[in-house]
Amino acid sequence: MHILTKQDLSVYYYVKDTLAGTSVNTTDEFPLEGLDLPTVAVENSAITPRPWELGNKKQKEDRTWNIDIFAINKTQRDELSYNIVRALYSGIPVYDYDEGFPPDITPTQMGYLHPLHIEVTPVRIRPELVEKMYYRATVTFVAEYSYL
To answer: What is the pTM for the complete model shown?
Structure first.
């Protein structure tokens, strides 16, 4: 499995574990059908290489993820956003999912994603455009990977 896939899975399971004990649906893609509220969708976004050493072609990659929140009301949207942001501050362990997946197996940690930038954006939805009113926000974060 590619390291980028392991990072994606680690972010997904980290968010899912952060919200464990709540009645929130967590998905690893933007929901296209059957939106049950509340739902949190985790999706990878941009990969941005940046120079690392002068005179060398080595680069570091900054990765971006979007965490879309679909909530019943403003309070629920805000609480989910704040809980996710608070959890991101401590960073995200990256695991070797070639060994297997939770809950059957606890894979070995192979690195860490360090958030460089975190942003929460409420998404305004016009009531006349949707059949069922709900509240949205997107937590976007950029992280840098480092090996253990």
So the answer is: 0.89
